[in-house]
Amino acid sequence: MTVRLGTVAVVLAALALAACASDNNDGTAGNGPAVTFATTPGVGATTSGTGSSTIPGTTPLTTPLTAPLTSPLTTASVALHPFVSGTHGPVDVVWRPGDDTMFVVQQDGLIKVARGGTLGGTALDIQGKVSSGSEQGLLGLAFHPSKSLAYIDYTNTKGDTVIAEYAVRADGTFDPASARIVLTIAQPYPNHNGGKVVFGPDGHLYIGMGDGGSAFDPERRALDVGKLLGKILRIDPEASGGKPYTVPADNPFVGIAGARPEIWSVGVRNPWRFTFDSANGDLWIADVGQNAWEEIDVARAAQGGGRGLNFGWSAMEGNHRANDDQSTVGITPPVYEYPHGDLGCSISGGTVYRGHTVPALQGWYVFSDYCSGKVRAIRVGAAGTEGPVALGTVPGSVAVSAGPDGAMYVVAHDQGIIYRIDPA
What we know:
The chain is mainly beta. It has strands at 78-84, 90-94, 102-106, 110-115, 118-125, 138-143, 149-155, 161-168, 174-185, 197-199, 205-208, 231-235, 263-266, 273-276, 283-287, 293-299, 316-317, 320-321, 336-339, 347-352, 365-369, 374-381, 384-393, 397-402, 408-412, 417-423. It has one domain: Neuraminidase, CATH 2.120.10.30. Helices cover 0% and strands 36% of the residues. The strands form seven sheets. A four-stranded antiparallel beta sheet has the order 1-26-25-24, with no helix packed on it. It has a four-stranded antiparallel beta sheet with strand order 2-3-4-5, with no helix packed on it. A four-stranded antiparallel beta sheet has the order 6-7-8-9, with no helix packed on it. The termini are far apart.
């Protein structure tokens, strides 16, 4: 089994979702209903600089660009500067709407606040509730877009994933007495816990679910729509009608016998970090690979934003065959992949730059890799992928996030430092 996002809290990926008692996480092979997955005609086969291939059953891109992709972005365009230090095992940085305070999510169960680059007090302490495995702990945070509520993703002391809601006070601290469990996800293995939670442009909560762990998806969960593992989920997390959450009526598997209605997209291995492009709502997923390839997937908002898409795992690892017993029909291929080696072995997404201080970076997706620490950028047009362009190195980097003003930050888990990407 490959160590990807595992040695340190950043490799997390995979949720075994037991949101309700009907979820079958019994370790048996998936026997979900036969479904026809959507495909994205605007996303083509990967161009990685090391060769690419078109996956059988997918729709390769044929639409030409109206203008060639050109950009002055070079390695010398940016500099990486330490911005916040003194944190312990950070895995992400998040902002609440209308507030420039940075909330630093630590794997040990603390959420710290930082203002103006200075680390401050604690907004939430759940250290007694979290497990301490290398891919476990407090993994994600999302603030409600219009209410004083926050949602966290953590693995509890039993190793199960929990999505919990907290009321947020005016000063940014969380009210411990307000804690409410939205859903609990039984984990069959201690790795691949996913962990990212984020509100989409539609106001719904998206949850990244890994394939359940171990290696090569042994129970074939990722393409089984009867299970929540190996998926991107979409819910309304607020309690309603006596239920802890509700499922949006337009989710793709609503009303399909045997399918879990919470599912939005399928076929991901460990979507450790995913984001929505603030300019157009496109969904970008950095999916951690098995033992050979790392990949970046894109779901265009104009083509459904990932609704019902199949990103291929565990039939494919990137553009390469993984489990021969899994169908490749209907797969949306990655827009970029890279092999293990000098470039790394555990991708850390990642967001599209929409700031103003580095004009050359505008529209580029910036990502890193935990193993190599290399921070790079790609830009995707209708005819393919431009780049990557090397931007620097941050050892042990586990996330790249954008602040409310568009400034971009790289989270260094091992160093406990948050770096900012500035003009060179």
